[in-house]
């Protein structure tokens, strides 16, 4: 049985490998939670899309202890880690690409915010509109989506996009030099080799939960899909290089 302490150790290792791609990851978390807090409700209802093991959800609840956070992911192993580490969170197994996923959330009122970090780029451009359209049905008017991710502008401003990448790469080099943290693949290989996760790994394989490639890395993909889904104001709330916090307001 997966213990709380073992889960916390693996999540700490997860956070470290994620920081290898995002040396300003905690700053982006802070900006995102600042935005949720600025909505003005002391007990916001928040949906964490593609929550992974719950890194963002746990930080949000720590800052806003009266919040209700519903953490959604389709990966059985990451959900198992999160449930063992953070019993105060509500984890829901759902594939955002499958119509009707919002019905699994058990909401008793419209959500004030949906949040996500380094997750929605896995969803193809063709599927994004459906995901955002369904999300809009459970957000209150004036509610927001806050999506932190690497979102590129190659298609619209290629010279600026190259500079954004350069800023990010230089920041990572300053942070880690020649000794970056382990990468994403190494983390997954390590946890797959841990006997404590045998059943979760088997469930993950059966569910086909592994990710391949970045399907919707362009900022324009998300802006277009959000506009078509009925979000009224869409813009970058925080940015460093090509790492940005995209905000969209439900009309």
Automatic annotation (TrEMBL):
InterPro entries: Methyltransf_25, SAM-dependent_MTases_sf
A biological process from GO: methylation
Keywords from the named record: Methyltransferase, Transferase
Domain Methyltransferase, chain residue ranges per copy: 46-143
Molecular function as annotated in GO: methyltransferase activity
Protein name: Class I SAM-dependent methyltransferase
Originating species: Nonomuraea marmarensis
């Amino acid at each position: 049985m997966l213990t709380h302490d073992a889960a916390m150790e693996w999540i700490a290792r997860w956070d470290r490998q994620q920081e290898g791609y995002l040396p300003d990851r905690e700053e982006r978390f802070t900006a995102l939670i600042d935005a949720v807090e600025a909505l003005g409700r002391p007990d916001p209802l928040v949906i964490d899309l593609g929550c992974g093991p719950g890194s963002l959800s746990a930080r949000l609840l720590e800052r806003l202890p009266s919040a209700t956070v519903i953490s959604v992911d389709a990966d059985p192993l990451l959900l198992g880690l999160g449930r063992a580490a953070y019993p105060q969170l509500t984890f829901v197994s759902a594939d955002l690409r499958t119509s009707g996923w919002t019905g699994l959330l058990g909401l008793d009122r419209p959500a004030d915010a949906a949040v996500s970090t380094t997750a929605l780029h896995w969803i193809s451009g063709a599927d994004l509109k459906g995901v955002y359209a369904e999300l809009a049905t459970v957000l209150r008017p004036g509610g927001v989506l806050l999506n932190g991710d690497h979102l590129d502008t190659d298609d619209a401003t290629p010279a600026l996009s190259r500079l954004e990448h350069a800023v990010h790469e230089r920041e990572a080099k300053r942070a880690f030099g020649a000794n970056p943290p382990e990468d994403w693949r190494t983390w997954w290989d390590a946890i797959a080799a841990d006997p404590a996760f045998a059943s979760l790994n088997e469930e993950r394989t059966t569910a086909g939960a592994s990710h391949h490639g970045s399907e919707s890395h362009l900022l324009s993909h998300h802006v277009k899909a959000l506009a078509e889904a009925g979000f009224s104001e869409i813009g970058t709330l925080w940015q460093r290089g090509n790492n940005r916090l995209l905000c969209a307001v439900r009309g």
